[in-house]
Amino acid sequence: MFDPQILRDSLCTRLRRALPVRPDAGLLSVTLPAPELTLRFLPPLSAPYFYWGRPQHEQYLLGLGLVETLEAGAPEPRRFEALDREFSRATQSWLRLDPEESGFGPRAFAGVAFDGNDPMAAPWNGFPNAALFLPTLLLHCEGNACALTFTVRVTDAYKVEGVMDEWSALLERLLIALVLPPDPSGTRTALTRVLSVPEDAEWLRLIRHATADIGAGHLQKVVPARRIRVCAERRLEPARLLSGLGYMYPCCYLLAVDLGRGAVLA
Predict the structure, then answer these.
(1) Which residues pair with 9 in a beta bridge?
(2) More exposed terminus of the chain, fewer Cβ within 10 Å: N or C?
(3) DSSP letters for the chain
(4) Per-residue pLDDT averaged across 37-49, rounded?
(5) Dist CA 166 CA 89 (whole Å)
(6) Mean pLDDT of 153-175
(7) The pTM is what?
């Protein structure tokens, strides 16, 4: 186990050495190897954060902070093309430094609603219909290899000390979260269902209808979905929920996004 203060100071020294005094305007990213770190599941963090994981393949990404949020707009029938244009425009000048040859680099997280015309009303208030999110701090872990990527938008106000203050604060928050002991509580949280759309009887009827259509050759694949709202006796913690999902479904992709308006987990 590493000491957060010692590791932060070491990383900040290496970052300061890599930062150019006056880069051209645009995006600037610095990536450093961080073999002391490991990531398996989402640690307890405050928003904004972005998490992506494939436990079976030991591949994980965790982003903190926001440098850019690029939206396609809604309604937008060609959302992916619109996001690609926005990303190309925003990143046309991007200095990506990997001074210690970690082999990693900056990445953006994407979020897209199923329906391009979805107005993103409750319970999706505050989430864009289609967007790319470029984090300020990104932790990459693949197998036993880990690296950290720090990103900033260079403006006329760019100063090395100001950038270092922002990066250092985020880094400290991440390192402290990574060394926190797991929640010792194994108590299950009682859930009370307050809404189901559609209700159970209608849901089962639709499932029977879909499976019959598959059996008859009318359909090849169906992805059923419904909305269920529950109330919990105590606060549901995203880190604990995602940890449980990872243990139960290690072959699946794990996702978590919190923009400060509630977390989305999958």
Answers:
(1) none
(2) N
(3) ---HHHHHHHHHHHHHHHS-SSPPSEEEEEEEE-TT---SS----PSSEEEEEEGGGTEEEEEES-SEEEE--SS-TTHHHHHHHHHHHHTSSEEEE-TT--S-----EEEE-S-TT----TTSTT--SEEEEE-SEEEEEETTEEEEEEEEEE-TT--HHHHHHHHHHHHHHHHHHHHSPPP---PPPPEEEEEEES-HHHHHHHHHHHHHHHHTTS-S------EEEEEESSPPPHHHHHHHHHHH-TTS-EEEEESSS-EEE-
(4) 92
(5) 25
(6) 96
(7) 0.90
- Residue 96 pairs in a beta bridge with 29
Buried b or exposed e, range 77-101, using 16+ CB within 10 angstroms: eebeebbeebbeebbeeeeebbeee
Beta bridge partners of 232: 191
| Beta partners for residue 142, in sequence order | 59, 145
User: What is the per-residue pLDDT across 89-139, written as a single tens digit (0 to 9) for each?
Assistant: 999 999 999 999 999 999 999 999 888 888 888 888 889 999 999 999 999
In this prediction, residue 236 has a pLDDT band, given cuts at 50, 70 and 90, of: confident
Q: What is the dihedral of CA 242, 244, 247, 252, to 10 degrees?
A: -40
Q: Are residues 44 and 180 in contact, defined by beta-carbon separation less than 8 angstroms?
A: yes
